[in-house]
Amino acid sequence: MGSDVHYPDEAPAHRVRVSGFWMESTAVTNSAFARFVAATGYRTLAERPIDPALFPGAPPELLAPGALVFTQPTGPVAWKMGNWWSYVPGASWAHPLGPSSTIAGLEEHPVVQIAFEDAEAYARWAGLALPTEAQWEFAARGGLVGAEFAWGDELMPGGQAMANFWQGEFPHENLCLDGHAGTAPVRAFPPNGFGLFEMTGNVWEWTTDWYSTKRAISASRKPCCIPTDPRGAIAEQSHDPHEPGIGRKVIKGGSFLCAPNYCRRYRPAARQPQAVDSATCHIGFRCVAPGAT
User: pTM surpassing 0.90?
Assistant: First the structure.
């Protein structure tokens, strides 16, 4: 688990044990989430009214229900996230890019604009759970120990894209060599060694672990001391040093916006913090269930 040669918060590489479990072969799709909403009447965080008392001084347009949407710049821009991310009122899982967008024709794409509590609500309804970071990473590796990617050590073997990630100079040049400018259908690329599709690329996926830049588990290589079913930081220790405030969960796998020049996180070891109250157009989830050890 982890890596010693990429981003600092992936280190140190270390051994863990994970009890047996089953994982869904794909991320939860728009059609599956639609069935959940139809059965329960659930409203996602992005669809609910915002309490102005929680955000004193915020402009009125930022207090309307909505979510974060990526917009590709037309040319090179300053290296600032606000140049490609914006809060869009009316954006939600059913309208992922804003109120005029739709998921018609995207039924088998992963559902996005899902905050952590939305993913948990779906998992409870389905009688499942969200994975821990260790479960997710074990599953993503597909039986390959120490490989950089979910399929091996070469990013595009034989020139073939094995995942949906950004090709070209992010954020203004998307060459779409993998055939997808945004999300892809959940079985668009070959599965890993465990038969799981799009474990990296396409959309980030929520885990239940609280994020910390410092690993909260033992890095011992002694067989007697290898941790079993490790968990991340406690909630009170969870933070992103670049954005203090609300607690953050670990998200895994990267997305269609990860690029070699910007975010090389389309790898099993990669991890990133995500505020639990945020929904974006590149974060989804999949579920797990207990299994035989």
Answer: yes
